[in-house]
């Protein structure tokens, strides 16, 4: 199977899942169970693994400043159990999706078909070496088709993310260094990556210096030829490790899933809920 088909499919599906991280409805749902601010983001993604120690959250949330993770997780499980947080997350995702795409979302035939395809792909993933995916895979599937679709995309996202971290670690790239490489590619402004993951200027500069010493960054912080080669190798390996679920669908199934979800993802991006203008789903 052509890995580019799988990558396009993943990118098209991403906004449907990612809405939960930016919309106000999940934030309100977390606050209702006592988890507020950035604690909601970290606790809600970590909750499928259970009431794990902060160090486990730091390990799996690879490119965030560990100090930010520690502060966000301080006392989180004392305020709300993982089950309570998971309930709030699903409630928030449901409200956010219906708020953008309409209250009839769960009864639409296109959503039901997309949910069936996405679940087929998600159930072809494996748990070995993928802790965040494994935690999410342990959860029961929701009933409404629009939430089946959302959960399936959650599984596919965490499966890919765990594999990506493995590739970065294998290349000797740390969390902050991964963001510097990403920013140097020009795909996302470095300031957005640095501030959203709360890396101090001195840590960012030190990571940049380490990459420059390896010959991956030039004098102005741009990727060198070697840096581009390394980053492409990491991305290609990530794609290869994430291929199994898409092979379960086949290229025709992937294209059908993309055609069903793309209008919804475009509507989510156009809604402004992200607070910034992300790249639109690929054509």
Shape summary: globular
State the total count of DSSP E strands.
Answer: 0
H/E series, N to C?
HHHHHHHHHHHHHHH
* Gyration radius over CA: 19 Å
Low-confidence regions: none
Hey, roughly how much beta strand do the residues contain?
A: under 5%
Distance between the termini: 19 Å
Count of separate DSSP helical elements: 15
Summarize the main sheet. none
Class from helix and strand fractions: mainly alpha
Q: How would you characterize this protein structure?
A:
This is SalK. Pfam families: HTH_67. This protein is an all-alpha fold and 283 residues long. The chain has one domain. Helix content is 68%, strand content 0%. The protein is built from 15 helices and no strands. The chain has helices spanning 3-18, 24-32, 39-46, 54-60, 66-73, 76-79, 82-101, 109-122, 131-137, 145-170, 175-184, 190-196, 201-213, 225-241, 244-270. Helix 3 (39-46) crosses helix 7, helix 8 packs across helix 15 and helix 10 packs across helix 14. The chain starts with a helix and ends in a 13-residue tail after the last helix. The relative contact order is 0.16. The mean pLDDT is 95.
Give a summary of the structure in a few sentences.
It contains 15 helices and no strands. It has 283 residues and is mainly α.
Task: Please write out the topology.
Blueprint: H1 3-18, H2 24-32, H3 39-46, H4 54-60, H5 66-73, H6 76-79, H7 82-101, H8 109-122, H9 131-137, H10 145-170, H11 175-184, H12 190-196, H13 201-213, H14 225-241, H15 244-270
Helix pairs in contact: 1-10, 1-15, 2-7, 3-5, 3-7, 4-5, 8-10, 8-15, 9-10, 10-14, 11-12, 11-13
């Amino acid at each position: 199977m052509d890995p580019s088909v799988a990558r396009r499919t993943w990118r098209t599906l991403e906004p449907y899942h990612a809405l939960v991280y930016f919309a106000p409805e999940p934030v309100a749902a977390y606050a209702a169970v006592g988890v507020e601010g950035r604690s909601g983001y970290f606790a809600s993604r970590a909750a499928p693994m259970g009431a794990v120690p902060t160090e486990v959250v730091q390990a799996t949330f690879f490119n965030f400043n560990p100090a930010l993770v520690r502060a966000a997780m301080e006392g989180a499980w004392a305020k709300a159990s993982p089950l309570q947080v998971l309930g709030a997350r699903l409630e928030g995702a449901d409200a956010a999706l219906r708020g953008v795409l309409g209250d009839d979302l769960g009864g639409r035939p296109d959503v039901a078909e997309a949910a069936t395809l996405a679940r087929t792909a998600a159930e072809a993933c494996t748990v070995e070496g993928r802790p965040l995916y494994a935690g999410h895979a342990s959860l029961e599937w929701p009933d409404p088709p629009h939430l089946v679709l959302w959960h399936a995309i959650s599984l596919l996202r965490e499966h890919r993310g765990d594999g990506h971290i493995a590739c970065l670690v294998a290349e000797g790239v740390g969390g902050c260094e991964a963001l510097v490489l990403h920013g140097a590619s020009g795909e996302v402004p470095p300031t957005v990556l640095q501030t959203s993951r709360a890396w101090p200027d001195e840590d960012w500069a030190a990571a940049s210096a380490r990459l420059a010493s390896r010959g991956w960054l030039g004098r102005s912080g741009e990727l060198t030829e070697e840096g581009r080669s390394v980053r492409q190798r990491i991305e290609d390996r990530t794609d290869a490790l994430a291929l199994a679920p898409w092979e379960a669908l086949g290229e025709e199934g992937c294209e059908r899933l993309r055609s069903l979800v793309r209008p919804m993802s475009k509507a989510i991006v156009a809604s402004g809920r992200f607070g910034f203008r992300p790249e639109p789903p690929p054509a």
